[in-house]
CFA47 protein
Amino acid sequence: GIRLAPKEKLEIPVLFMPAEMKIYKAVVIIRVMRENGENWPYEVTAESNADSKRNVIVAENGETQGILWVYPINGTPEAPQQKSVVIRCQARQRQEQRVELLLIGVMPDGTALPDAGNSAMVNTEESSNTPEVTDGSSATLEFLYELQYQSDEIRSQLESLVGIELVEKEWDTESRIVTLIFNVVFAPSKPMRNEATVVIQCTAGGLWKFPLVFIATEPEVDDVINIEAVGLNKESIVGFKLTSQTR
């Protein structure tokens, strides 16, 4: 019953309030009919393409009575953002740290899961096989994870210094908590403080985000240079070499 003038825009609000961490799907269907009740003279024939047949309402005389627009909606529940995990390392050193991330509310219902296969994970644009997480049945949970950066500038500073790999998965079926254990490597070349976010998605539905804070402290002193004076108002000179680590 909404009247729409020619070239007028119509905004349709969609509210999503998930009750569980699973995939939700819906379809918004918009039907348009002429205000005077008349049909469009366009006739859907056997030669018409499939889209035309699917998106129109045909009257008894073969004319077009209404036009349909179909918009699929996929809802992905997102868990509240968790507390930051701090990875600290001295510049020009290498820190390797195991990080446990808890995924709360994972759905154990095997009927909601896709066909079981090799669990794929996304690790800074590289994929590899990972162990499967099962609940004792044939249902298999698969997870995708990715390290995201707040800006391209932070990406350029951190991407070559940080590595993350999923090494272990544990699932408590009673509490519906999945524990993912990551091995995080941080090898900074200079003092810095930057942030990144581990984004984890379950193929059965649900999205979790875990902030990581990377802190590189001041490096150790390379050497101590002693300059001895040869006399008052006279210059003393000492030489030392600096080697660049890059081109």
Observations:
- Residues 152-158 form the longest helix (7 residues).
- The first strand starts at residue 24 and ends at 32.
